[in-house]
Design a protein that fits this description.
Length: 170
């Protein structure tokens, strides 16, 4: 089946994997477009369970002067921990196969103590020799899914989003 701009029509509805995720959900956070950073220690401390951040993209503009952004996590106030992070159309999506459309897997996957995942707004910059980036479309909802699979105790983090720029160059 072909979906999206490839010619097959609209994408199927996203699935909510949190209903069957056995690791539990630590926190669900709605992130406003152009929202700031998040410190898990200030949210009650984080050890186990998935942290799901929901981002809804704006309807306009449809073109961006600097369409790329990224989402970064670093340890903050506790020991280092491996983080598994995905950007997906689905909450709690920790499937292991990348699907840039987000239908059969997350759009981007990163497993690292200090992960950084890229995304674009309304344009594709993925390709040979480039790290995959999630391609966000206007007026859509996406999820940043994070978990600490090897954390014993508290493994707090700082999450920061560098947003795309839609201001004209000076």
């Amino acid at each position: 089946t072909s979906w999206g701009s490839g010619g097959g029509g609209p994408l199927p509805p996203a699935e909510d994997f949190c209903t069957t995720y056995t690791g539990g959900v630590w926190q669900r956070t709605t992130v406003p477009w152009k929202g700031g950073g998040y410190v898990t220690r200030d949210m009650g401390g984080w050890g186990s369970g998935a942290w799901v951040l929901e981002i809804t993209t704006p309807a306009s503009p449809t073109t961006w002067t600097s369409p790329t952004g990224n989402i970064s996590l670093v340890e903050f106030g506790s020991g280092s921990a491996l983080r598994e992070v995905t950007i997906s159309r689905s909450p709690c999506d920790f499937r292991t196969t990348i699907d840039l459309l987000g239908v059969t897997g997350p759009m981007v996957i990163e497993n690292d103590a200090w992960p950084t995942l890229g995304f674009t707004m309304g344009t594709s910059v993925s390709g040979p020799g480039r790290a995959p980036k999630a391609e966000f479309k206007p007026s859509e909802t996406y999820y940043v899914n994070v978990r600490n699979p090897l954390c014993a105790g508290v493994c707090d983090a700082l999450l920061f989003i560098n947003w795309p720029n839609n201001k004209p160059p000076r």
